[in-house]
Amino acid sequence: MLDKSPRPTPINVPSDLAAHWMPFTANRAFKKNPRLLAGAKDMHYFTVDGRKIIDAASGMWCTNAGHGRTQISSAIAKQAEALDYAPPFQFGIPQAFELANRIAELAPAGLDHVFFCNSGSEAADTALKIALAYHQINGQGSRIRLIGRERGYHGVGFGGTSVGGIVGNRKLFGSLLTGVDHLPATYDREKQAFSKGEPDYGTHFADELERLVNLHGANTIAAVIVEPMAGSTGVLPAPKGYLKRLREITQKHGILLIFDEVITGFGRLGFAFAAERYGVVPDMLTFAKGVTNGAAPMGGVLVRDTIHDAFMSGPEHAVELTHGYTYSAHPLACAAGLATLDIYRDEKLFERAHGLEPKFADAVMSLRNEPGVVDIRTIGLTAGIDLAPQADAPGKRGFAGLNSAFHDNDLMIRVAGDTLALTPPLIVTEDQIGEIIEKVAKVIRATA
Ligand SMILES: Cc1ncc(COP(=O)(O)O)c(C=O)c1O
């Protein structure tokens, strides 16, 4: 059938790619065999040489409503014409207040205040700083420890790196923050392999928090931060009952619980936030990525009333929280955010993801007998497929998979080591799920 989808106008590709030091990228390999993108529409990217690539990664867990949504791009364009920039310190724009209200409405009751920043990393650092400051002003200044989790990812600021638990992201950067400890990861392949949704095994990993409390003393611990589903480390859903248990233990000891929902927010697990899926309300919840469908940088922290209100004392002319960014609640990001939330609501995309979850899980599990597949995990519209690594070359097979997908199979996936991650836009059709799975099977065979 003739493909009538729009093609981007040709783009000039510089002959010299050296100056751009790319983030989290194997730069030398990339520059020898670049994966260059020129356009995107709905479920697809277009490469600079005109190929159409199906996006099984939502870019990078961002474009939940699919690409090239004109409602979002025209909202951004209109906003840029009307008001390009406004200082967010001591001044405001109506759209920032409207967006905060809309996000708070989507969040569990009690998480009623939003602090805006520009990324998931800034959101994590903001939440950790609010936790420390809250205890300080609340007369519990001894609570200075922050607890993260092994295999957790909270971005690349010093706070997020410190509570993060991916060794490769930490080891080059010195001693990081002091006073940080980590819960164990929730993954045990022997007991959980090929689980759909939350694994049955592993609630007890939450009890390790009691051990850390015994070790350090509850009155030294400010907060615990976890992702409800650890995405960047290979899609590790929380075991059944795990988050509830963490909530009980944190509550018992006066420790704040922070959910990092940078990936799980805005429909990825079939709900506005994973907190709703699990019926667990944290004290703070970080978001980014899907809030603007990736069309403008934005992140933020949802904060519980009691924490916010504790800051609202002292002289009224004084700044209550000495924290914020030049681009907090940037007008273009606010416009993108409002248009994005309209699309999520009008197209019922969270419900759509929820409805597709069983079909998606079955489709991905059909790959279990492909060569060297050692585990598959699925949750919401997300899956991690662990491939047996090549001997003495961890990560090489995953990297080969990324290239095989892009160059040979017109497919975009994410890889974490030797894990292939699938996380398509929530607009994906059942046929497109089938197409993605066929392509992934080819990638797995090509790298075996
Ligand atoms: C759970 C989580 N937190 C934080 C971040 C960091 O977000 P950013 O890259 O926008 O700083 C990410 C990015 O993937 C993430 O997955």
TrEMBL record:
Its cofactor is pyridoxal 5'-phosphate. The keyword Transferase applies. This is Omega amino acid--pyruvate aminotransferase. CDD domains: OAT_like (cd00610). InterPro entries: Aminotrans_3, Aminotrans_3_PPA_site, PyrdxlP-dep_Trfase, PyrdxlP-dep_Trfase_major, PyrdxlP-dep_Trfase_small. Keywords: Aminotransferase, Pyridoxal phosphate, Pyruvate, Transferase. It holds the Pfam family Aminotran_3. Its EC number is 2.6.1.18. Belongs to the class-III pyridoxal-phosphate-dependent aminotransferase family. One of its GO terms (cellular component) is cytosol. It is an enzyme of class 2 (transferase). One of its GO terms (molecular function) is beta-alanine:pyruvate transaminase activity. It comes from Bradyrhizobium valentinum. The keyword Transferase applies. Gene3D superfamilies: Aspartate Aminotransferase, domain 1, Type I PLP-dependent aspartate aminotransferase-like (Major domain).
